[in-house]
Amino acid sequence: MPLRYLGRLRWCCDARRSLLPLPLRRSSTSSSSARPNQASSGTALTAEEEAAVERIKSSLFKARKGSVEDLVRSLGAECSEIRLTSGVADSLLRRFGDDWKSALGFFQWAQSRGDGYAHTPDTCGRMVDLLGKLRQIDRMWDLLSEMHCKGLVTVDAVAKSIRRLAAARRWKDAIVLFDRLEDMGLERNTETMNVLLDALCKEKKVELAREVFVVLSPHIAPDAYTFNIFVHGWCSVRRIDEAMWTIEEMKKKGFPPTVITYTAVLEAYCKQRKFRRAYDLLDSMSSQGCHPNVITYTMIMTSLAKCERFEEALSVSDRMRSSGCEPDTLFYNSLINLLGKAGHLFEASQVFRLEMPRNGVPRNLVTYNTMISILCQYGRDDDALDLLKEMEAQSCKPDLHTYQPLLRLFLSRRGRGDAVDRLLSELVNKSGLGLDLDTYTLLIHGLCRVAETEWAYRLYDQMVGSEIVPRHKTCELLLSETQRQNMEAYVERIQNDIIAFGLSP
């Protein structure tokens, strides 16, 4: 049954973010950063392809302050002889991070070349997702329309679009897109209905999702996942009674609730600090033959730790082990974090160094990040830096969360600018990362506290040039520091930016 009667909603813009190279301590510009020579498929790029990637990135970086059309023209003037491959395209779209403008400029230039290269459905889907993520919803709609004309629309692309529309508060547009699936050659079936319901529930529009379900259910059969979506949805809006009612409805339809279903309810109880009810439900699950799994126990343990009920949290760990449930990497990550916050650094290190290898549980990026963060909290910077080197030896690529606690630690100490400089150089040139809003904010605030105002301003200039809108407190802090040091040109620029960004109180 058509859903077009639900109409369309206006959408709300978020600040656009982009990740571009950052200035290091002793220079106001930096070269474009490089990531490992690997395409999205896992196949290494050839030397020719990697050279093409770097030339395209360099051209885009030089024109980064222009419009999308300017970027297309720049690429046309400087890169017309480059041979494009799907590896080059996929690698570039992954490296742009949240820089939607550079990604779209490259995307439009590539499809206009007329030299035999054509975007794949996966490439188009990635571009759709990036535009939706950065709230470029009208551009996303235009691209979907183009994909439809070329027969490139996939279920995955539609799923991404529906989720991004819901996240942008354009819920009814998400419904309209679902309603048009058959026009695009796709089916309105249980799978696609679940995508729509899940997107609405994750944005806490559970009642609207229920209305849609009532309209669709006579024509599209629900499955167990459909009901789990609603259980999670009602729990997310703190309506646990409706979640339990959904579980009963689920049973009547012949779908027995699973540990996933009950874990959603347990999590809702934990968020409301109703731990006694959570324990009662745990006992009830076991009596029904639905035994908690490692995810269930990890969630309860983490929730208790957030409430600083550390000893009780550790008792959950003991309960899990006694039940015969085997720990996994996620469990150990939470346990290490819990031990660190409880003041048990030695025990956290023992779990990391001895218990995980002994039980054959692999460490992942989050494991290393958690341990590095704990070591930094205790001022153990040498041990944290050793772990950073160990990650490289284990082929575990660091991310921004790896570097942030180290940057925070060194910024808290006067005279450690060289250490910050080295970390930033490694972040850009070795790890191939760009900065996001949180990391820029951390750096600018930290540098202002240690009187590195010139450096802080260069980072601020890079952030604004990358179309990352600074936070009001960042502008106010930097304005205060530049005024105190009589940096008049900087003061005027920041004051103008505060007005332009609408950050005035």
Automatic annotation (TrEMBL):
Top-rank lineage group of the source organism: Eukaryota
InterPro entries in UniProt: PPR_rpt (IPR002885), TPR-like_helical_dom_sf (IPR011990)
Keyword Amino-acid biosynthesis: no
Protein's name in the database: Pentatricopeptide repeat-containing protein
Coiled coil (residue ranges): none
Start and stop residues of the PPR repeats: 223-257, 258-292, 293-327, 328-363, 364-398, 436-470
Family: Belongs to the PPR family. P subfamily.
Chain residue ranges for the region called Disordered: 25-46
Pfam families: PPR (PF01535), PPR_1 (PF12854), PPR_2 (PF13041)
Annotated keywords: Repeat, Transit peptide
